[in-house]
Amino acid sequence: MTIIITGSSTGIGFALAEFFGKKGHRVFGLSRKNVNSEFFTSVPTDITDYSQIQNAVSEILKTEQRIDLLINNAGMGMVGSVEDSSAEEILKLFHLNLVGSVQMMKAVLPKMRTQKSGRIINISSIGSEMGLPFRGFYSASKAALDKVTEAIRYEISPWKIQVCALHLGDIKTGIAENRVQSTVSEPYQKIFDKIHQVMNSHVDKGTNPVEVAVYIEKLLAKKSWKAHYYFGKFGQKIGVPLKWILPQNFYEKLMRKYSKLEE
């Protein structure tokens, strides 16, 4: 299989690229940094720049006859209150988490249509299913990607191209160090500091990213995909069906306790 993975310099993307490369697949890792790996080919690419994406895909197709799988993994986190977040910060986040993923799909779909096959996994978050306190725009950016994923499933189905959103819980990576953080104003500072510590501890105790690769390998064995899959610890995954069935006020009370907003 020929696989393209974005955000492959660190964390989940690097773990995925190494995992599938070791399995004998032809893996191309797209990230802004060049990465030395014996298991995948690094293609320095800023996925917020469509011309760079087009050049990267063109280079890949000089040696490869097919593109079998795109994993849209590149993304960033963002923390801060809704009130304090600037327009520039919000746009930067959406440009990477949403627009970058859409541009990657645009670049590979012509080849997949010609093949009449191909698969795309958009890496989302369990947090896209609910507005997380002090991560509202991160939740919103991933929720937007979810809806685009649902829409494009209809549009590309005539060519037997499959796409899904894979919602991840906390994975043990360096995301905490790389988040965009808004300046937090005085009214929010005390509660933000408390919640920020909790969210970082959840990442520190998160799932090993190699387990995400194992889960994706199982997904690839399926003949057909649902629109959404959820991977993470039980305490995080259970939040999704609970939101569907519980009264909103009661659900919010549970979320406040989970986030340590109240004891």
From TrEMBL:
User: Where are the membrane-spanning stretches?
Assistant: none
Any one Gene Ontology cellular component term annotated for this protein: membrane
Q: Name one GO molecular function term.
A: oxidoreductase activity
Where does the source fall among the domains of life?
Bacteria
Cell inner membrane as UniProt keyword? no
Which keywords does UniProt give here?
Answer: Oxidoreductase
PANTHER family to which the protein is assigned, alphabetical: DEHYDROGENASE/REDUCTASE SDR FAMILY MEMBER 7B (PTHR44196), DEHYDROGENASE_REDUCTASE SDR FAMILY MEMBER 7B (PTHR44196:SF1)
Q: Belongs to which family?
A: Belongs to the short-chain dehydrogenases/reductases (SDR) family.
| Name by which UniProt lists this protein | Short-chain dehydrogenase
